[in-house]
Amino acid sequence: MATLPGLIRPAAAAVPVGELSGRVVDVAGLCVTVAGLASFTAVGDQVRIRTLDGRDILAEIIAFRQGHALAMTYESIEGIGAGCPVFHDLHAGQKQGVSGGLAVNGSWIGRVVDPMGQPLDGRGPLLPSAGRQQRHAAPPAAAERARLGPRIDLGLKALNLFTTCRQGQRLGLFAGSGVGKSTLMGMLARETACDVTVISLVGERGREVREFMEDDLGPEGLAKSVLVVATSDSSALMRREAAYSAMAVAEHFRDQGKSVLLLMDSVTRFCQALREIGLSAGEVPATRGYPPSVFATLPRLLERAGPGRLDDGGKAGQMTAFFSVLVEGDDQNEPVTDTVRGILDGHVVLERAIAESGRYPAINILRSLSRSVPGCNSEDENALTVRARRLLAQWEEVKDLVRLGAYKMGNDPEADMAVRLGPQIEEFLTQKKTERVSLEESFEGLARLMAADEGTGGELT
């Protein structure tokens, strides 16, 4: 161990002042066993492993076993063998762990970065920043947080009407593969009325990143966005950090008093990364192969989104968040889906059958809800959407009879209205991905459609 100076000035706190060293004694699967550091490191500390060909690979301590430290690398373990030296830097007044932080500033807007804050878009380095935003941070204290802000215009008719969202609210997008989830998130990124959008692509297919940027997000959406990307070939640690880094970037802009939209795709791949880490550390698989630590970690991440702390003037920034969940096997009760749904403030369900019918966004209105709706819409607006939901539910019950020719008009006035209006409401909810419909236009359009059938003049009172 290197000798430490007796006096460290605050300006030099970020400079390593010493170094601990150990050595690799075993490599198995994704895990590297390190001897000589167990007494001086903690879970979450970062170390450098020098490979046999002289490269330094960054790794993280994930567990301890039988007097040795277990580490996982942030990249491929190729080149690591028994006896490779392992180094742990010592810093003045702080530990060199994964919570070292990101130098976030305004130059990040419009850029694509990896979870470590390195640019991926080939547009040169990011501007330096004096402050550091911690990746692994605690949520604001419950009693110090602001309340939800006013409702936010999402630009999508189906969401504005039936899952109306307030600033600072957190909703889940639950969908199977190939149901239009990425397209919906691109629409939200472009059309939502916010100051900054932060998008986390966790475990995304490499070829789809550029397609998402150019086709779904577009130049207009990218101009106000920060993308944090870890593709599916990245290590489990990098995929995990993609979620934490995006949350830290969103917190930075929220703490400046801005209205921030956070889009994370997907929480399921974040949990899969946690599962790989937990199983490598020796945890016992519990629910469908997920170790208990996964379900303990989820609320610590998701609770960081939402309203910020109140400042001295009683104001606070807001982080509105949409977390997509890739529903495995289209099972809405699988463990990750069920856990996330219980933590968030609402859920939006995308269904394959609706997508196959050609209606996009393929949102199941009857299974989607926002827990803030009763308090953010007017009484007339709530009555309108409740009426429309009831008609859609009745139309769902009788449409098979209508298709078979077994339904007879005149027996039930309410069902007759559902037969007339149900298809019209579904058609009204169809929206092109390049189309934007404001909150006011959404409610006015639905009111006109309902009033045209009921003969009330077509205006929302």
UniProtKB/TrEMBL annotation:
The AAA+ ATPase domain, residue ranges: 167-317
Subcellular location as annotated: Cytoplasm
NCBIfam families: FliI_clade3, fliI_yscN
Physiological role: Probable catalytic subunit of a protein translocase for flagellum-specific export, or a proton translocase involved in local circuits at the flagellum.
EC class of the enzyme, as a word: translocase
Protein name, per record: Flagellum-specific ATP synthase
Residues spanning the signal sequence: none
EC identifiers of the protein: 7.1.2.2
The keyword ATP-binding is assigned to this record: yes
Family, similarity comment: Belongs to the ATPase alpha/beta chains family.
Keywords per UniProt: ATP synthesis, ATP-binding, Bacterial flagellum biogenesis, Bacterial flagellum protein export, Cytoplasm, Hydrogen ion transport, Ion transport, Nucleotide-binding, Protein transport, Translocase, Transport
InterPro entries named in the record: AAA+_ATPase (IPR003593), ATPase_a/bsu_AS (IPR020003), ATPase_alpha/beta_chains (IPR050053), ATPase_F1/V1/A1_a/bsu_N (IPR004100), ATPase_F1/V1/A1_a/bsu_nucl-bd (IPR000194), ATPase_T3SS_FliI/YscN (IPR005714), FliI_clade3 (IPR022426), P-loop_NTPase (IPR027417)
SMART domains: AAA
Compositional bias annotation for Low complexity: 130-143
One Pfam family here: ATP-synt_ab_N
Ion transport as UniProt keyword: yes
Domain of life: Bacteria
Region of interest: Disordered: 121-144
The reaction(s) this protein catalyses: ATP + H2O + cellular proteinSide 1 = ADP + phosphate + cellular proteinSide 2
Gene (name only): fliI
Taxonomic source organism: Bombella mellum
